[in-house]
Amino acid sequence: MKKLINAPEQVVTEALQGMAAAYPDLLKVNLDPDFIIRADAPVPGKTALVSGGGSGHEPMHGGFVGLGMLDAACPGAVFTSPTPDQILAATRAVTGPLGALHIVKNYTGDVMNFEMAAELAKEDGIPVESVLIDDDVAVTDSLYTAGRRGVGGTVLAEKICGGAAEAGADLPSLVRLCREVNANVRSMGAALTPCTVPQSGRPSFELAGNEIEFGIGIHGEPGRRRIPLESADRIAEMLMAPILADLPFRRNDPVLLFVNGLGGTPLIELYIVYRAAHRIAAAHGLQIVRSLVGSYITSLEMAGTSITLLRLTEDMLRHWDAPCLTPALRWGA
Amino acid sequence: MQAQQADDVAFLCDWLRRAAQAIEERRDVLSALDAAIGDGDHGANMARGFRAVAEKLRDPPADAASLFRLVGMTLIGSVGGASGPLYGTLFLDMGKAARGVPVLDAAAWHALLSAGVAGVAARGKAAAGDKTMLDALIPAAAALSGTDSVRKALARAADAARKGADATIPMVARKGRASYLGERSAGHMDPGAASSALLLSMLAETAA
């Protein structure tokens, strides 16, 4: 393991201290329990947005705390969901009378910990609703599985719901909007290399030099298939096909195309993937009205990419374009 | 009855300290099992949780029900992942079932573990055969009935849990992160079933 760390067990704490020092104007960091909140929280007259998950996916979620996105983020240990006491403390710190929406990625641990936190918050009289994000088409949905994973769609849901919350949306309408985003977003990813969790010190899986893991998750958990390495164009094609087939997207649908880096892939390669994905989407008759290219939901230093396609409504587009001022996403503010 | 409660609390503390040590020792084994079908942090998460439990045992509460509750809350607040709420619920529900129970005899252990296992199944929305910790815990709870000897009952439970954990090897996961692998999850022991079997083997060892 070759990493810029001091001690494996201090990684999350020291990273949070670094964020606090870097962005004192945007956010406040609480340690033990760990959470990150907007510097001006609780914002009067606003419904709170709270998300969280394991650390190691930076800038997700702490980097999205600020005006126009999240009010609070709860980082767990690396690739491990936060605990209910942590989520409850974060929710309490940012929630006013209008209540809070928990945006939860569909992973068993996250779901259970957020569920327990929401139960505790409701016992305290705090109105909390939760929406699960499960946009990963790599996972076959059936009655017998825990369902699809939440991946890149989460970033888009946090931005769009954040815009709506900032504009004064109440909790029931935020729940509706978040569900609508989730119903219209699809993602798929592929990894070129594994990543190493600092605490374990070993790569999460073995991959030969000429192999890629297709349908990867964001925790270094293996994907569905292992296939030979292909060109960027071919990989983009293979990722786009199940995404396009799944919704299904119709001709002339306005869409947002998001090409994400998993942490170890430079922007130059992501642009090559974007070029291919854009051509494929256009050939499918889609109107690409907004784009996002960069590493926003990562898996430590894993090389690879995920592609996310969101079918936009006018509402979603308006809230996507609304100003935001966070460490990782900022425009118009 | 006061004396019996004190004996039970001492026994439980002894078990939990052994369990914490055993988990620390097998931390890498549990993480390796998890790496095969999940994300490889089960050992680290359980070790963090049981270290926190061992800290709390320095000043244990006076009765078994309160001790189970304390362990449950500590695990929920320190483990994270799916194991935190699941093991937390196991101990919280064992604590509820232990309320008003004068002594932890074989029948009491059967009632307690059955209640805890039912709680885990409800929290995880899982059942036998899903390739989870329940595949070790359900047979263990069943094996606790039919004898008046605590020592024998706990030995049987540990044995059933170990066999249950072994039986998860060929299973295809239907719950948790391993379920994302589909057929590729077969051929590996479920890490949650392995840690459950470990806890029960330490319980049997404490009683032996």
UniProtKB/TrEMBL annotation, chain A:
<protein>
    <submittedName>
        <fullName>Dihydroxyacetone kinase subunit DhaK</fullName>
        <ecNumber>2.7.1.121</ecNumber>
    </submittedName>
</protein>
<feature type="domain" description="DhaK">
    <location>
        <begin position="7"/>
        <end position="331"/>
    </location>
</feature>
<dbReference type="GO" id="GO:0047324">
    <property type="term" value="F:phosphoenolpyruvate-glycerone phosphotransferase activity"/>
</dbReference>
<dbReference type="InterPro" id="IPR012736">
    <property type="entry name" value="DhaK_1"/>
</dbReference>
<keyword id="KW-0418">Kinase</keyword>
<dbReference type="Pfam" id="PF02733">
    <property type="entry name" value="Dak1"/>
</dbReference>
<keyword id="KW-0808">Transferase</keyword>
<dbReference type="InterPro" id="IPR050861">
    <property type="entry name" value="Dihydroxyacetone_Kinase"/>
</dbReference>
<dbReference type="InterPro" id="IPR004006">
    <property type="entry name" value="DhaK_dom"/>
</dbReference>
Automatic annotation (TrEMBL), chain B:
<dbReference type="InterPro" id="IPR004007">
    <property type="entry name" value="DhaL_dom"/>
</dbReference>
<dbReference type="GO" id="GO:0047324">
    <property type="term" value="F:phosphoenolpyruvate-glycerone phosphotransferase activity"/>
</dbReference>
<keyword id="KW-0418">Kinase</keyword>
<feature type="domain" description="DhaL">
    <location>
        <begin position="10"/>
        <end position="205"/>
    </location>
</feature>
<dbReference type="InterPro" id="IPR050861">
    <property type="entry name" value="Dihydroxyacetone_Kinase"/>
</dbReference>
<dbReference type="InterPro" id="IPR036117">
    <property type="entry name" value="DhaL_dom_sf"/>
</dbReference>
<dbReference type="InterPro" id="IPR012737">
    <property type="entry name" value="DhaK_L_YcgS"/>
</dbReference>
<protein>
    <submittedName>
        <fullName>Dihydroxyacetone kinase subunit DhaL</fullName>
        <ecNumber>2.7.1.121</ecNumber>
    </submittedName>
</protein>
<keyword id="KW-0808">Transferase</keyword>
<dbReference type="Pfam" id="PF02734">
    <property type="entry name" value="Dak2"/>
</dbReference>
